[in-house]
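RETRY 2/3 - previous attempt timed out on the joint model. Re-submitting the same 626-residue input unchanged.
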Amino acid sequence: MVGPEQLLQLVLVGLTQGAIYALIALGFVTIYNVTGVINFAQGEFAMLGAMLMVSLAPLGLPTPAAFFLAVAGVVVVGGGVERLAIHPARRASVVTLIIITIGADIVLRGLALLAWGTDPLPLAPFSAGPPLTFGGAFITRQALWILGTTAVTLAALYAFFEYTYPGKIVRACAINRLAARLSGISPERMSLLAFCLAAALGGVGGVVIAPLTLVSYDMGLYLGLRGFVAAVMGGLVSAPGAVAGALLLGILEALVAGIWKAAYKEAAAFLVLFVILLLRPQGLFTRAVARQAGL
Amino acid sequence: MRPGGDTLALAGLGLGVALVPLGVTSQYHLSIGVFIGIHAIVTIGLCLVMGYAGQISLGHAAFYGLGAYASGLLTTKLGANPWAAMAGAMALTAGVAYALGRPILRLRGHYLAMATLAFGIIAYLAFVEFKELTGGPSGLAGIPRLRVGGFVFDTDRKFFYLTWGGVIAVVALSLNIVNSRVGRALRAIHGSEVAAETLGVDTAAYKLRVFTLSAVYAALAGSLYAHYLSFVSPPTFGFIASVEFVVMAAVGGLASVWGAPFGAATVTLLTEVIRDVMPRLLAYASGEHEVIAYGLLLILIMIFVPEGLTVGGLRALRRLGRAGRRVPAAP
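RETRY 2/3 succeeded.
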């Protein structure tokens, strides 16, 4: 039987994993809200963040500097994907654009394979030291970094959307694209901004998770699909919904793996996606009325 | 496309299929031909779903796998006749697709893409995890070959004819559907779901039927695959395979049943060529790097010829023809 301490341990592990899913899920929500596209390359942004961090580590830069460089690199890639692949096809149907993001996903994964090879790469935790104890459960220092970074990123994102001009424009675009356009907002620039933002979120997630797992070129698909499930759990249009969905998903996976069998973890995530689509396609936390079909 | 032109094109395809094995004698090339046929059958179904009903399926490899595993299990574990197993696999897959599509296709938007994605991954995990039944990662071997009386489809040449016979049947059936009331209803749904509904088209019912039919095609292809190789294992039916089928459909062109065989042939051949050429161009490149070219191709086609190579190519030909006619008229 699972004791309360073990349960707490599993929940902590799940929350850590869920925090990463949350960052990736927010990328999905941002791009979907602004452009109506489901960006299947989202997980590769996390992979690139992790890979760049691993490559920057031997240069001996202080961790924050390496962190920002890695995330900036991913933002450049995200902007590049939008300019080179999405922008030229901006008048095409959403189905076409989604297929393009699948193509971008394949290219990014292939380029990473070319640049970094197939061997999984290790990265040292941001701060060394033994795990801390918390109510009888252990929590690694890197897990604290992950939770802390996610919290700071979410706060920054909230501030960006609520209090800055560009943030308000993105929100206007998400609420009603046509009305935003009529007010002089360029949907093309918003699309670029959304991809850069989503790339930054994915990049941050990849950078902080790198020390926890071995980094490999094919980790993006795994992370991207989890982020997608989390975003759908939250209804695909809601940022708080996506974060809540991600944390729930992380905890669920940890519980399934800890109590039942590790191999069922993956099936559990997609069974959840499946059941939610069947029973509550508008997401777990939104009312059905709140969801409107896009323009 | 006029029905008359389609009949002519079907006859042309039949003639081509009859002639290819006379010219191509290498076992390797014939086996590529068989795979192109098998992929084409899946892709035609996907074209109907994507091009005519406007929905993406990211889980068709699951139906393909369901057909392959059902056929393999019915023959190896229950000793069923391979043809009966093929029919059983198609019926089973139809049931699964119907049950999956029924609640999902009532919703508007990308819900089918999400649901099929989840379904595809769950099916793949089931193939891997139910080891007692499917053999798990090491696969299921010893699937018997198809036979009619004493005639066994045991060579690449015989199987080539069988597979492409299947392709022709599937193309003919699909063309009939597309050129009928059902096809017009589907095109209306693709144009505007709301408008179609206003005109009395039961959009959900039509989408469900075409989705189920496409799953049955995939099951037929999977069953052919199983009886051709006598061996199935999970990687053939994973998420990447589902994406590859979408690529084939997109490359061929979503708005035409004829695009599917071309898309399947282009992508299958290209994969073989890249796998062959890449390591020679880059010393350290392995066959796995083929995916880069693959992804780039997909992006470029979607940007420049979103209607696919068949329709785009035809339009370019027509433009060339017009330009050619105009030249002599110029002073």
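The mean pLDDT of chain A is 86. Closing ticket.
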